[in-house]
């Protein structure tokens, strides 16, 4: 039992290592076919220069001031909004007058969004740089976490037009605090809270993800989830990375970090059709298990017996059978593999083919092994190979799963293989790595169970379950 | 008087030589038709065969070398070698073989053939490693040594007739299985319209729209796989003299035993 606990504890670091390796393999293997995502621009595993709002805003400001930028840079600066103010506005003085004017003009849409431009008089319009300098002198004191926290707390607790207006005037600087206050949505009070907070968030982030009046729980949750999915990938663009955050960002601001964060936060997520992956896997697993398990059991329980029976045949006939062993594997291709047509027969047809394909190599190996075993003196043999259903799983499983992928597609079955094939076709890296983790988890648990069973039956303990029917004999 | 086994071995080697020669020279002399259609079926068959047999050879060599090395590493109980092999196996078994190979082909970039060989070969290598180490660690040296001593066999004869035949079994089994493995993978990738090692292969012929092309592919693979298997029997017997000197216990040749 102690061994089993130790092996179960080993699964956690194993999953971690597999996740990293599988992520690398899938990323490199898919190459340009990886499903486009915002995070694809990040480094794979280590971000030595994580980009935050400070770096982005100063770069955009310099590009605009030196006329190196196109309209896209101005748009991005507007998207950053007031989150860039603590870095851009104090630096305006350092720019030449022309550059200062360009940057101040680029920030004008932000002022309009914040509702502070309407308050300005005609004289201010004439000199935008002065407007911004004066604004920063007056309002810099509001751009502090404590102020934002107080305002968002107030808005989260009750409807407060004043707080709402002040938060809108703080623009994107308050986004993080607003979204942190969303929390889980369970009651009518939570819906109202989300409605108030997201009204401000949608305004400052220029998105239409608002909770409609009289929204129900499901609608509110789906909108909140949109924000919660978006924010982790966008957070570093609106927040400075200082102190410990910068250290965390070395890993967190990578493709792997974002994937792991999303996995821990949202669970399995959705498949390529947008359906919850966990639900689909739950529905598809019986079909795949129904194909795999009977085939493996039949092959390993009946295979040796069939081989024993075939061994009694005359040598010439046996040799002929051995040399033609691949025919039963190849002939179904001729009969059924017209890729233009979906094959009739459904599950029964798929199971029949699976039985043949799994059984043929097993019978062949058994026949070869048993034939040769007769030729060795008894004292030279390594003990008769023992076959047991609990020794089936291991190296064979991925190959049999591949067969399942093929048969599910050919016969139009809804199984795990189809999900894998769809993820591969769509270049859905996240889903493939997740399926790899699930595969590792299943095979590790099966191996532990098998090891326990073997030890309990006083057989030699084996770290891996592999077929060794031919281990003691020659071909 | 030749035994049926000897005849079968000779016939299989002749078949392999014939198929190999036709495929090799045919692919060199005839142009490549794409896609494989009935008028150009022979050319297509030759080119496809060359790609498949080349991949098969590559997989056999790669998996033998890597698998044997990993198998030796896997012998050390609780050592870092075993941890490495175990970790690699866990990784390899985490995804269906098909997906792993498809991804490895993708990593090879402009050389998909080598990616394919490395993909299929590395998975087979792990299987060889486990079977190889399992075989060696399960040998019964005491009984065998006693048997050898009673028959007055020297160290070399003992190694040649006892250790090598047993240790080579998993390797040769895997070599025999490399053709079906390669063809199966080519067929699967072809069916899923994923890039594989080559544009035309026997595996892809198995999933072609034309039934005649599929039949030709199936027969080619079946005949070659059978011939490879039977041909390898002659290598796996350990003591080649056994074939020409049948005895009651062919595992020990009935020829002259070298005295210690």
Highlighted features:
heterodimer, A: about 475 residues, mainly alpha, 22 helices, disordered C terminus, B: about 260 residues
Would you kindly provide a brief summary of this structure?
The complex is a heterodimer of chains A (475) and B (260). Chain A is mainly alpha-helical. Helices cover 67% and strands 0% of the residues of chain A.
Number of helices of chain B: 10
Low-confidence spans of chain B: pLDDT under 50, at least 5 residues?
238-260
Distance between the termini of chain A: 39 Å
Number of strands of chain B: 0
Which chains have the largest interface? A-B, 80 and 82 residues
Q: Helix/strand/pairing class of chain A, anyone? A: mainly alpha
Classify the beta-strand content of chain B into a percent band. under 5%
Helix content of chain A: 55-70%
Shape of chain A: elongated
The SSE string of chain A, one letter per element, is HHHHHHHHHHHHHHHHHHHHHH
The biggest beta sheet of chain B reads: none
Radius of gyration of chain A: 32 Å
CA radius of gyration of chain B: 21 Å
Oligomer: heterodimer
Beta-strand content bin of chain A: under 5%
Largest sheet of chain A: none
H/E element order of chain B: HHHHHHHHHH
Tell me the structural class of chain B: mainly alpha
User: How many beta-strand runs of chain A?
Assistant: 0
Q: How do the helices and strands line up, and which of them pair or pack?
A:
The complex is a heterodimer of chains A (475) and B (260).
Chain A: H1 2-30, H2 53-65, H3 71-80, H4 85-88, H5 97-106, H6 108-114, H7 122-126, H8 128-139, H9 145-157, H10 161-170, H11 175-180, H12 188-205, H13 217-238, H14 244-252, H15 255-266, H16 277-311, H17 315-323, H18 327-336, H19 346-373, H20 396-410, H21 416-426, H22 429-456
Helix pairs in contact in A: 1-22, 2-3, 2-5, 9-10, 9-12, 16-19, 19-20, 20-21
Chain B: H1 4-29, H2 41-73, H3 80-92, H4 97-107, H5 112-138, H6 141-150, H7 155-191, H8 202-206, H9 211-236, H10 241-244
Helix pairs in contact in B: 1-2, 1-9, 2-3, 2-5, 2-7, 4-5, 5-7, 7-9
């Amino acid at each position: 039992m102690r061994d089993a606990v130790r092996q179960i504890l080993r699964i956690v670091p194993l999953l971690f290592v597999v996740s990293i390796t599988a992520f690398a393999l899938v990323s490199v293997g898919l190459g340009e076919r990886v499903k486009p995502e915002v995070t694809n621009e990040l480094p794979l595993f280590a971000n030595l220069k994580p980009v935050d709002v400070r770096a982005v805003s100063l770069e955009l400001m310099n590009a605009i001031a030196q006329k190196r930028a196109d309209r896209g840079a101005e748009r991005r600066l507007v998207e950053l909004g007031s989150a860039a103010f603590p870095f851009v506005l104090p630096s305006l003085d350092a720019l030449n007058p022309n550059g200062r004017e360009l940057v101040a003009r680029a920030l004008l849409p932000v002022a309009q969004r914040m509702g502070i431009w309407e308050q300005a008089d005609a004289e201010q319009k004439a000199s935008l740089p002065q407007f911004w300098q004066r604004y920063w002198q007056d309002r810099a004191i509001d751009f502090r976490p404590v102020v934002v926290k107080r305002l968002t707390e107030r808005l989260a607790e009750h409807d407060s037009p004043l707080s709402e207006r002040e938060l809108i005037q703080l623009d994107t600087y308050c986004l993080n605090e607003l979204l942190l206050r969303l929390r889980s949505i369970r009651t009518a009070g939570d819906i109202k809270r989300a409605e108030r907070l997201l009204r401000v968030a949608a305004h400052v982030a220029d998105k239409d993800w608002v909770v409609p009046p009289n929204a129900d729980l499901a609608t509110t949750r789906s909108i909140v989830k949109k924000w919660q999915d978006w924010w982790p990938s966008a957070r570093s663009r609106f927040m400075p990375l200082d102190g410990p955050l910068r250290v965390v960002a070395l890993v967190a601001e990578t493709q792997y970090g974002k994937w792991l964060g999303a996995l821990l936060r949202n669970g399995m997520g959705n498949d390529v059709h947008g359906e919850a992956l966990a639900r689909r896997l739950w529905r598809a697993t019986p079909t795949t298990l129904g194909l795999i398990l009977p085939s493996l059991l039949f092959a390993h329980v009946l295979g040796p017996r069939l081989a024993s029976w075939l061994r009694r045949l005359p040598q010439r006939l046996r040799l002929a059978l051995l040399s033609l062993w691949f025919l039963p594997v190849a002939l179904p291709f001729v009969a059924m593999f017209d890729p233009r047509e979906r094959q009739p027969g459904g599950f029964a047809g798929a199971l029949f083919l699976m039985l043949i394909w799994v059984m043929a190599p097993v019978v062949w190996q058994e026949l070869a092994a048993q034939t040769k075993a007769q030729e060795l003196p008894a004292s030279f043999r390594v003990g008769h190979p023992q076959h047991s259903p609990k020794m089936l799983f291991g190296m064979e499983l991925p190959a049999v799963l591949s067969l399942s992928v093929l048969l599910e597609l050919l016969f139009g079955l809804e199984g795990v293989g189809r999900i894998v094939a769809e993820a591969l076709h769509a270049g859905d890296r996240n889903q493939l790595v997740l399926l790899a983790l699930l595969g590792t988890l299943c095979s590790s648990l099966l191996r532990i169970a098998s090891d326990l069973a073997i030890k309990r039956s006083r057989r030699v303990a084996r770290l891996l379950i592999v077929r060794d029917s031919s281990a003691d004999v020659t071909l | 008087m030749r035994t049926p086994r000897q005849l079968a071995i000779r016939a299989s080697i002749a078949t392999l030589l014939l198929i190999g020669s036709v495929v090799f020279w045919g692919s060199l002399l005839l142009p490549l038709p794409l896609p494989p259609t009935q008028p150009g079926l022979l050319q297509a068959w030759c080119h496809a065969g060359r790609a498949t047999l080349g991949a098969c050879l590559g997989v056999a060599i790669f998996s033998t070398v890597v698998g044997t090395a990993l198998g030796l590493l896997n012998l050390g109980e609780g050592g870092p070698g075993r941890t490495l092999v175990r970790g690699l196996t866990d990784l390899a078994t985490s995804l269906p073989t098909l997906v792993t190979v498809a991804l490895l082909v993708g990593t090879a970039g402009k050389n998909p053939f080598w990616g394919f060989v490395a993909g299929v070969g590395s998975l087979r290598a792990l299987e060889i490693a486990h079977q190889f180490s399992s075989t060696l660690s399960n040998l019964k040296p005491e009984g065998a040594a006693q048997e050898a001593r009673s028959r007055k066999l020297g160290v070399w004869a003992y190694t040649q007739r006892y250790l090598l035949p047993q240790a080579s079994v998993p390797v040769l089994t895997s070599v025999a299985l490399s053709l079906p493995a390669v063809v199966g993978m080519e067929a699967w990738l072809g069916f899923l319209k994923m890039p594989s090692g080559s544009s035309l292969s026997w595996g892809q012929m198995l999933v072609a729209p034309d039934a005649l092309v599929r039949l030709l592919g199936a027969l080619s693979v079946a005949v070659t796989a059978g011939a490879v298997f039977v041909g390898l029997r002659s290598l796996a017997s350990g003591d080649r003299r056994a074939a020409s000197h049948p005895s009651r216990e062919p595992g020990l040749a009935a020829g002259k035993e070298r005295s210690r």
